[in-house]
Amino acid sequence: MAGGGAGQDAVTAARSVYGLLALFVFAIPAAAAEPEACSYLVKQMDAQPAGAAFLPSYPTVRDGPLKDAAYLYDNAVAATALVGCGKTQQARRIGDAILFALDHDRFWKDGRLRNAYLAGNAAPPPVKLPGWWEPKQNSWVEDRYQVSSDSGNMAWAILALLAVHQGSGDPKYRDGAARIGTMQLQWQSGSKGFTGGALGHEPKPQILTWKSTEHNTDIAAAFAGLARATGDKAWTIRARSAEQLVESMWLPDCRCFAAGTGLDGVTPNPLLALDAQLWPLMALPGAAARHGDAVKTAQQKLGQSGGLAYSEGSKGLWTEGTAQAALYFKLAGNKAAAEKYETAVRSMRQKDGSYLASSIVAPTGFMLESDPTQPRQYFRIPHLAAVSWAALAARGYNPFTRAASLPRP
Asked: Which of 28, 148, 200, 300 has the greatest number of C-beta atoms within 10 Å?
């Protein structure tokens, strides 16, 4: 995930390990084989204890801050992918865990979610947060980012709940999504867009002032989905605010989107980040027609090992982003490009069915929000979001529209 200081899932926790110590149901055709990535997600879900559960973001990590950490973004993408795979019952278990977290936080009662939870059963209350024993401090510690609340991650939770609602017909998921969206309204800033959220522990986390292109893309799609699911047109107006921020980040000379803004919430951060190029085209009505050159720019500047890097400040194949490109081209009807990137994604598949986050240890081009002296990085380890995006690409299922299509103008 990218942004003008935007939060991301794997990157901050990986730093902790290495540096800190509803319109139609998408169904599988009867004759189609289930994609391997779908099968892996089902297997991982079935391995969890019964009931509402979060999946581990890094299932092979055995100690440190990443052990049993279940990032909200990763789990939201996994739930959405499971719906796209035709596995709504498994997706509901993650949806139920998100709803449980909404109602049973140890401090917050305002409809916000944390960036990460403890993998496994969400119950009993309060919902459990990840942490680890730090021998040097002789104490139990928590990662500052994991306990925080990114606006983009919360928008992904809305998208996931709307997908589960669409697949199941159960209104509790739609209603939970609306609660999350209502909480996020406090982060709307000016006439254009939403800021990054809040960083740090309760009771007074730091309110972030930058705005992310990727976050606002997520919010625009989530709020547009809420408008359709609830019939409340106020969500359409709110979605438009986020969409206007994304549009304002278009850089004509580059033919690309800026990653977001600086701390003033206005000045563009011109770093070229892959998801900031791809997601608006998949999420915003008419964006593929208006700004299709963003993909060409990304291909020209971010090509790596047959796939794509995270940003122009990065090296190595980023599996998530390469799968996102495969999905975009599949939805756009470019079969050759879709197959090229799906082939690159498959090269990241491991024998157990998992997918590596990156082909190498890959800086993202951003610094950590919790420690600006340290770079954000992806690592060559299995990652839940990587396999989830591989499943979405294989199924041709757009998580922003919850359909096998780009948004209509």
From this structure: 148
User: By the 8 A CB rule, do 246 and 284 touch?
Assistant: yes
Strands 69-71 and 53-54: unpaired
Q: What's the DSSP call for residue 138?
A: T
- Give the H or E element holding residue 95: helix 88-103
Which residues, 6+ apart, have CB-to-CB distance to 315 below 8 Å? 304, 309, 360, 362, 363
Give the tens place of pLDDT for each residue, 344-389.
999 999 999 999 999 976 666 666 665 667 666 677 999 999 999 9
397 φ, ψ (degrees, to nearest 5)? -110, 120
Question: Cβ(282)–Cβ(327) under 8 Å?
Answer: yes
| Residue 70 in tokens | 């279940």
Alpha helices, H only, 249-346: 274-283, 287-291, 293-302, 319-332, 335-346
Structure tokens at 305: 């090992």
pTM of the model: 0.91
The answer to whether 223 touches 242, Cβ cutoff 8 Å, is: yes
* Domains, the chain, with CATH or none: 10-395 (1.50.10.10)
